[in-house]
């Protein structure tokens, strides 16, 4: 694609990156074939090809920021288009740039500004989220049915439950997560048990924080960068002391940290450290896949596995969890259109509820078709989103919890 970006923009790292990405795009349209919003809406501007053209116009000074923002807001950032693209277009990078430019050049309605500000003040802070969640549980009878159903059950597990004694030579840092540490602490407890069984001890870092994904995708990159630097400072001593990896059980968080090296590449104080941290990040599936599976004993439930977009398109780990589950003796049911997003996409389900609900309904139809006994996923946002639409008789769990159920009680 030919570009005519202004020199003032090309003089910046962001402008040069955008120009290079745009020039790789040949407008073939293969991306539209796997774009969830294009399939739902059938509009060119609500597919990757159209959005790329809108961003190009905006960067060249010709586009209308409010129009561009509307269509970029509808994008899930699922990266399915990147998996499909034969030209290697880094669409998600361009999307971040386009969103930042649209925010600078236009003005959102005040209701949207308040909503997005509120999400940035709530989701990355576990204590604040816990307070709101507790209040919502008290007021459950007064809430709309869809909201009441989405509330996670009270769980007696805690993040501290992941603190199994460090007793193995192999050690990893296990990320707590923000929403997950409050809504589903049992996930990391299960992860610690599985890793301990595989001869890997877990260390926790209490002075870290949110990975920065919430701010990054809500057009607050400066705040996201501050979170990244704080996390690097918190993790650095443990990595220097021999922790072999930084492990995430939430694929979205893992993807964000794997991107630290790129996102902080122009930071003179943190660029090198960010590269080293990113190189050490692993989804828990990468560790489990490298370890031998235990001999299968006892019946295993039939599982429909939902592979989050951040796992299969972002981290390019499609099929890894599925093979782990098979190796551990689980029967996997077929899931049609497994490459499509469930509609969670971080804060998307709150900001674009109509599209999100339609995507979830389609995903649940595909997941239920094989008559599974449990739905499994690899990301807290997807888990909570799918639970909201699934019937109570069909549990939705993290796949590592299924592995932990196979281990002998200690």
Account of the protein in words:
With 410 residues, this protein is an alpha/beta fold. It folds into 3 domains: 7-105, Orthogonal Bundle (Fumarate Reductase Iron-sulfur Protein, Chain B, domain 2), CATH 1.10.1060; 159-288, Rossmann fold (3-Layer(aba) Sandwich); 295-405, Rossmann fold (3-Layer(aba) Sandwich), CATH 3.40.50.1860. It has 24 helices and 8 strands. The chain has a 4-stranded parallel sheet, with helices on both faces. Strands 6-5-7-8 form a 4-stranded parallel sheet, with helices on both faces. The chain is globular. The model has no long low-confidence stretch (mean pLDDT 91).
Brief write-up:
The chain has 410 residues and is an alpha/beta fold. The chain has helices at residues 7-10, 13-24, 36-41, 48-59, 65-73, 80-84, 91-105, 110-122, 126-138, 145-150, 179-183, 186-197, 213-217, 221-240, 251-258, 260-263, 271-280, 284-289, 309-314, 320-327, 348-351, 353-368, 380-389, 399-405, and strands at 170-174, 200-203, 245-248, 281-283, 302-305, 331-332, 374-377, 396-398.
| Structural class by SSE content | alpha/beta
Task: Write down the overall geometry.
Answer: globular
Number of domains: 3
Quaternary form: single chain
Query: What are the low-pLDDT stretches, counting only 5+ consecutive residues below 50?
Result: none
Q: What secondary-structure arrangement, pairings included, does this model have?
A:
Elements: H1 7-10, H2 13-24, H3 36-41, H4 48-59, H5 65-73, H6 80-84, H7 91-105, H8 110-122, H9 126-138, H10 145-150, E1 170-174, H11 179-183, H12 186-197, E2 200-203, H13 213-217, H14 221-240, E3 245-248, H15 251-258, H16 260-263, H17 271-280, E4 281-283, H18 284-289, E5 302-305, H19 309-314, H20 320-327, E6 331-332, H21 348-351, H22 353-368, E7 374-377, H23 380-389, E8 396-398, H24 399-405
Parallel strand pairs: 1-2, 1-3, 3-4, 5-6, 5-7, 7-8
Helix pairs in contact: 2-7, 4-5, 4-7, 5-7, 12-24
């Amino acid at each position: 694609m030919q570009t005519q970006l202004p020199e003032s923009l090309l003089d910046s790292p962001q402008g040069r990156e955008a120009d290079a990405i745009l020039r790789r795009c040949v407008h073939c349209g293969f991306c539209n074939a796997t774009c969830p919003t294009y399939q739902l809406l059938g509009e060119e501007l609500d597919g990757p090809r159209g959005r790329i053209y809108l961003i190009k116009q905006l960067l060249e000074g010709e586009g209308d920021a409010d129009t561009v923002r509307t269509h970029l807001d509808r994008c899930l950032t699922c990266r399915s288009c990147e998996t499909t693209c034969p030209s290697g277009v880094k669409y998600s990078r361009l999307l971040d740039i386009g969103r930042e430019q649209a925010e600078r050049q236009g003005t959102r309605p005040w209701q949207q500004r308040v909503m997005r500000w509120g999400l940035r003040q709530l989701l990355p802070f576990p204590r604040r989220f816990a307070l709101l969640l507790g209040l919502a549980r008290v007021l459950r009878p007064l809430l709309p049915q869809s909201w009441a159903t989405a509330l996670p059950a009270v769980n007696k597990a805690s993040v501290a439950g992941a603190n199994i004694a460090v007793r193995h030579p192999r050690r990893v840092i296990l990320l707590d997560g923000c929403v997950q540490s409050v809504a589903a602490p049992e996930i990391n407890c299960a992860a610690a048990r599985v890793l301990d069984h595989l001869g890997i001890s877990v260390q926790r870092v209490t002075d870290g924080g949110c990975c920065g994904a919430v701010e990054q995708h809500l057009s607050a990159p400066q705040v996201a960068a501050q979170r990244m630097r704080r996390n690097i400072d918190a993790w650095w001593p443990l990595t220097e002391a021999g922790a072999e990896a930084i492990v995430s059980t939430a694929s979205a968080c893992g993807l964000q940290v794997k991107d630290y090296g790129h996102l902080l590449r122009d930071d003179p104080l943190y660029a090198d450290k960010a590269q080293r941290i990113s190189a050490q990040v692993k989804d828990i599936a990468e560790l489990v896949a490298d370890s031998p599976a235990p001999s299968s004993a006892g019946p295993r439930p039939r599982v429909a596995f939902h592979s989050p977009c951040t796992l299969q398109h972002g981290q390019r780990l499609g099929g890894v969890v599925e093979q782990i589950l098979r190796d551990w003796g689980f029967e996997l049911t077929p899931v049609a259109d497994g490459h499509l997003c469930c509609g969670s996409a971080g804060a998307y389900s709150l900001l674009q509820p109509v599209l999100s609900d339609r995507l979830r309904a389609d995903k649940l139809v595909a997941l239920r078709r094989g008559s599974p006994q449990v739905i499994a996923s690899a990301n807290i946002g997807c888990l909570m989103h799918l639970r909201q639409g699934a019937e109570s008789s069909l549990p939705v769990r993290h796949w590592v919890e299924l592995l932990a159920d196979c281990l002998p009680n200690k």
